[in-house]
TrEMBL record:
This is Murein peptide carboxypeptidase YkfA. It holds the Pfam family Peptidase_S66. The active site is at residues 166, 264, 333. One of its GO terms (biological process) is proteolysis. Residues 234-348 form the LD-carboxypeptidase C-terminal domain. Keywords: Carboxypeptidase, Hydrolase, Protease, Serine protease. Belongs to the peptidase S66 family. InterPro entries: Carboxypeptidase_A_C_sf (IPR027461), Class_I_gatase-like (IPR029062), LdcA_N (IPR027478), Peptidase_S66_N (IPR040449), Peptidase_S66C (IPR040921), S66_fam (IPR003507). Residues 70-186 form the LD-carboxypeptidase N-terminal domain.
Length: 362
């Protein structure tokens, strides 16, 4: 009897006595085990090919024009409705029309509606030919619950601007690695733009959607600190640390190979930041990276006296891999929040504390 192959894709022969039920059952189990292992290896290989293909064939969405329609969705937690209403006047100032997702006002516990409803809003906005950009109302939690159900072929066939951050990091990663679509890490409508004290500079960075421009991180916005000297260039990826860590072991595991990695977070104690960076370190994601752009870590302070500080934790992991790195960028849960495209080429001059990013639209 011929029994399957295994990881080395080798077949081997095992001879069993005839009419031996135990032997037949054992052969059946072994055969199915080896087949399952081969299928797992094939799936991993296909996923790797897809990721490499998406990197080399990035899809930039079409720029916006005055009068275009913007779709608003809430794929994570329920957004603040008052803030969302206030943000609409900002969109009017941009000269765009607004289409609200059917379930943006839904609430299902800590989610902005049931999974199938949030997924439907996402699909409907990508399928709608009139909608040229999709902006998330807020973050929170829930995007990872719908990632495996998304129709990525629909997105690839209808590429358009997709904008958000925080919990939206999971969607940025999944969409980019499955389709190659360039997405945007930026402030959201209810979480940021609709606040009464919304920062004017945060709003200004929406202008990058109307014209292909190279972005240079503005001097004087924040105090930057070189962690590791050197120059690095690569595709910009990353976002919220908690969400990056949560992709590990999933079909949407973040690919950091030869990439510039953006890292930010909020309300996480240093020990939690330590745990997540250690997970990325053990998964090889830090050593794979070309360099690091350390964004804002808002309120990431210890609650107990016996603790390492955030800077000590960041230094431990970032300096260990000795890749060019700068911290202090106003990217993330902060004000102002500088918006950046993900999936495009970026260059970091750590010694000069300069970050340059290719345009995200065409």
């Amino acid at each position: 009897m011929l029994v399957g192959g295994g990881q080395g894709a080798c077949a081997f022969l095992i001879y069993f006595p005839k009419n031996n039920t135990f032997s037949r059952n054992l052969a059946y189990i072994l055969d199915n085990y080896f087949i399952s292992q081969i299928m797992l290896l094939l799936q991993e290989h296909i996923m790797l090919i897809k990721r490499k293909g998406c990197d080399s064939m990035a899809i930039k969405p079409q720029r916006l024009k005055k009068g275009d329609a913007i779709g608003i969705i809430a794929p994570a937690s329920p957004p603040n409705q008052e803030n969302l209403k206030r943000s609409l006047s900002f969109l009017e100032e941009l000269g765009v029309k607004v289409k609200m997702g059917e379930h943006v006002t839904d609430q299902y516990g800590y989610l902005a509606g049931k999974d199938e409803d949030r997924l439907a809003d996402l699909h409907n906005m990508f399928a709608d030919k009139e909608v040229k950009a999709i902006i998330c109302a807020g973050g929170g939690y829930g995007t990872g619950r719908i990632a495996s159900q998304i129709d990525y072929s629909l997105i690839k066939e209808n590429p358009k601007i997709f904008w958000g951050y925080s919990d939206i990091t999971f969607l940025h990663t999944a969409i980019r690695q499955q389709t190659g679509l360039v997405t945007f890490h930026g402030p959201m409508l209810a979480s940021d733009i609709g606040k009464e004290d919304a920062d004017p500079l945060s709003k200004q960075y929406f202008n990058q959607l109307f014209e292909p421009v190279t972005l240079d991180y503005p001097e004087g916005i924040s105090e930057l600190e070189t962690m590791v000297n050197g120059r690095a260039a690569g595709i910009l990826t990353g976002g919220n640390l908690s969400l990056m860590a949560s992709t590990i072991g999933t079909p949407f595991e973040i690919d950091t190979k030869d990439k510039l990695v953006l890292i930010e977070d909020i309300n996480e104690e240093p020990r939690a930041v330590d745990r997540m960076l250690n997970q990325l370190h053990m998964a090889g994601k830090l050593s794979d990276a070309a360099g690091f752009i350390i964004g804002d870590f808002n309120n990431c302070v210890p609650e107990r006296e016996l603790s390492l500080g955030l800077d000590e934790v960041l230094d431990t992991y970032i300096k260990r891999v000795n890749k060019p790195a700068v911290k202090g960028f106003h990217i993330g849960h902060c004000s102002p929040h500088i918006s950046v495209p993900l999936g495009v080429r970026a260059e970091l001059d750590a010694a000069g504390k300069k970050l340059t990013i290719e345009s995200g639209v065409k």
